[in-house]
């Protein structure tokens, strides 16, 4: 097969490309230039898409003996990921930009271009297991690195042209393999921050783009105004610190963000017990099998990239899905994704995902 290997400059994508080469595929490496300010040099594990990352990817491609190119997708990335991220926060939602990047960039813009150029598949360093012939997407063998949640937005057609070669191997073994192959990125730190906010200051990033939008912080139970804020984009459901409340609760316990009303500019706060969610409504479902289920079904629902899982019954409808949780989850916010899994001996099977609209 002709395989386009997306090489971020990290160890996972480098080993994924190496494994594609070892499997006998005709591999071409490509680095995605997503940032409009690539002159910045990354520090530690912050950021991505810098000159350092591009150089690391180029050196890995040279060691592997494969052609290497840089594709500038900064315009698409800004429109579909960064602008979407800002708009979601302005609407009182909590988006996941990595999920949106996989959906809109790596397996839409990149895959479409790859297929047009005659490639059969796009290979990445994501930690997930995939049988593209079915297609079936499963959790990775390394539960600490599993990235199936952020891949649950991919449809059947995209999965048929995807490859995740490192998903069956724990991360320490991937680093050891990179060392044996002579890849300099073997010890490179993982990136843990939002890639387009290398400083890690999400509130500052949003403040620059949305400015000040004053509103009130109110007690959810009584409606009493407890403080003011400069914009709902500074908050997310489940947040405890930085609420702008100038006096303690009557019971002396911490308050948490329970809900955000962007039109009124109101942030509702209350006790942690009020964060319990037992039902989720979600829109825009994507089914990895390519076929939407018609009847309710049992599964495991996951609401965060790591953790936040519970047994659930899912009821499909014309407008989306309703997820009834067997036990409550906390910190579930509109704008996040709910991923749906079916447990199995071969590893949890990803059934699909949808975007959370509301909770109950």
From TrEMBL:
Residue positions of the active site: 101, 195
InterPro entries, per the entry: MnmA-like, MnmA-like_C, MnmA-like_central, MnmA-like_central_sf, Rossmann-like_a/b/a_fold
Root EC class: transferase
Annotated stretches, region: Interaction with tRNA: 145-147
Entry superkingdom: Bacteria
CDD domains: MnmA_TRMU-like
Domain tRNA-specific 2-thiouridylase MnmA-like C-terminal: 278-356
Catalytic activity: S-sulfanyl-L-cysteinyl-[protein] + uridine(34) in tRNA + AH2 + ATP = 2-thiouridine(34) in tRNA + L-cysteinyl-[protein] + A + AMP + diphosphate + H(+)
Enzyme Commission identifier(s): 2.8.1.13
Domain tRNA-specific 2-thiouridylase MnmA-like central stretches: 204-270
Cellular localization per UniProt: Cytoplasm
Pfam families linked: tRNA_Me_trans (PF03054), tRNA_Me_trans_C (PF20258), tRNA_Me_trans_M (PF20259)
GO MF annotation list: ATP binding; tRNA binding; tRNA-uridine 2-sulfurtransferase activity
Residues the UniProt record annotates as site (Interaction with tRNA): 126, 336
Keywords (A to Z) from UniProt: ATP-binding, Cytoplasm, Disulfide bond, Nucleotide-binding, RNA-binding, Transferase, tRNA processing, tRNA-binding
Cellular component GO terms held in the UniProt record: cytoplasm
Principal location listed in the UniProt entry: cytoplasm
Family stated for the protein in its record: Belongs to the MnmA/TRMU family.
UniProt function note: Catalyzes the 2-thiolation of uridine at the wobble position (U34) of tRNA, leading to the formation of s(2)U34.
Protein name (Swiss-Prot/TrEMBL): tRNA-specific 2-thiouridylase MnmA
Encoding gene, per UniProt annotation: mnmA
